[in-house]
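Is coproporphyrinogen III placement plausible here? Inputs below.
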Amino acid sequence: MAPTAEESPFLLACRRRKVPYTPVWYMRQAGRSLPEYRALRTDRKMVDACTNPDLITEITLQPIRRYDVDAAILFSDIVVPLRAIGLGIDIKPGVGPVTDHPIRSATDVARLRPLVPEDVPYVSKAVSSVVAELGDKPLIGFAGGPFTLASYLVEGGPSKNFELTKSLMYGQPALWADLMSRLADITTGFLQVQVAAGAKAIQLFDSWAGSLSPDDYRASVLPYSRRIFASLSASGVPRIHFGVSTGELLGAMGEAGADVVGVDWRVPLDEAVSRVEPGKALQGNLDPAVLLAPWEVIEQRALQVLERGRTAEGHIFNLGHGVLPDTNPDILARLTELVHTASARLASGSEESSSRASTAGGSGGSSSRASTA
Ligand code: CP3
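Reply from A.M.:
I modeled the complex. Tokens:
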């Protein structure tokens, strides 16, 4: 009998169940490293591609045709829900999200209204058609986290130090709370649309939250992320939370309500295990730049990530951030195969040794591989 999406290694690992091999997908697997993506985008703006259901479907499926990855991620962008509620925010090539009308006053914040499904019909349509094509392979839905969205809106574009965002956060706490609360509602609406249409997991990318201290993150961001995650708990879909340079925030990001905590390449996974509370799976964390090195280096580093990932209650292999545009797609195909075969070998090896240990009266380790499905 064919396995259902629920029995897919990706969802099993998110739920910290026993897996036949470590599942793998790549942040930004749909995008500029693929020639077929670049060909589709030559005469189309990014935001237009993100609002066309046929293009969303096609681009989401492109990496699935090339790589034996264990999940697809919806082709979209963190600005999509903001545009959908009427904000004039665009994606400038080589720059990122930009807006001519930054949100800095109470009047600006009042422009942020909740998102309803009718705002994003192209998302519902694309998710349904992707899910129909994928069969038993799960689709991950996503949205930007509240600090990251706030940073683009307040700064008006990408930022290094987030001065304007942080001065609003520190100096005008009531206005900050209103802004974050509205962003949480928009994000909740956007994720619920994706789950209703068939997304089997979601990832909240709070990419730039790592610029905050743990105390400030807990006081000024975590409550809003918690609301977003809580709004999805009844749906039962695994919730992944990721940000860059969040080594000091991994525990708090888990406490916000994530089932899976994404780790960038700066913190080894066995160290990350000790930074999150029990009951969390981890995702990550090969440095994306390693993929530009010779294969021997990639192989050695990937095996190290797999080894360290075995100390987690569940592990989904990924990069520590998105695929870099210059990455050779053939390398990602080869890496996917390596992760599958090497982790299957490690899993069957540990089953043999744990059955030897139980024959000898051992009580088994704390690793997920020892837990039963
Ligand atoms: O992971 C995937 O395959 C799904 C696609 C995806 C995109 N954006 C498509 C995209 C995802 C998950 C995102 C999320 C996103 N967008 C984040 C959070 C994840 C992260 O990278 O930390 C952020 C911060 C953004 C904002 C954004 N959009 C940036 C910084 C850029 C890059 C600007 C540039 O050109 O260098 C974008 C544009 C963007 N989003 C591209 C893609 C494939 C590249 C633009 C293009 O193809 O022209």
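Short version: The radius of gyration is 20 Å.
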